[in-house]
Design brief:
The chain has 135 residues and is mainly alpha-helical. It has one domain. Helix content is 59%, strand content 0%. It is built from seven helices and no strands. α1 crosses α4, α3 packs antiparallel against α4 and α6 packs across α7. It starts with 12 loop residues before the first helix and ends with a helix.
């Protein structure tokens, strides 16, 4: 498997604008961390529905997953109790190549007990599983 470090992908302005329009989200080109600013745990089901069922180009799907990850990070419930988080992990595993850059970032590159974010340890485990399944 190609190293997740080399599988860099970035959000594009056209994809951000398209996702903003689809979900009626605020958008201005100067919003530096747009996907994180507009994330909303209250809309997580809507975001997941669109990710699963909409015909989205990869650039838009990538942007939408960034919103989904931040929305999961912002959930009030423990992630271990959250079925939507397990669904997100399954989506990431299924499209790992598309989201490898995001998974690597959100994993924090951390070791056990050194997580930057609530989602970090599960994403680090996902990286490890993906690496072992492609060796």
């Amino acid at each position: 498997m190609e190293s997740a470090d080399r599988m860099l992908r970035f959000q594009t302005q056209p994809a951000i604008a398209a996702v903003a329009a689809r979900f009626s989200l605020p958008y201005a080109p100067e919003m530096q961390d747009w996907a994180w600013e507009v994330a909303d745990p209250g809309r997580l089901d809507e975001f997941l529905q669109a990710y699963d069922h909409a015909t989205l180009p990869d650039d838009e799907r990538f942007v939408l997953m960034e919103i989904i990850l931040q929305s999961c990070e912002d959930l009030d419930a423990p992630l271990s109790d959250e079925p939507r988080w397990r669904r997100v992990l399954a989506l990431l595993a299924r499209r790992f190549t598309l989201h490898a850059s995001s998974v690597r970032y959100w994993s924090g590159g951390s070791g056990p007990g050194q997580d930057r974010w609530r989602v970090s340890s599960d994403l680090l485990q996902l990286i490890e599983r993906q690496g072992s399944s492609h060796e």
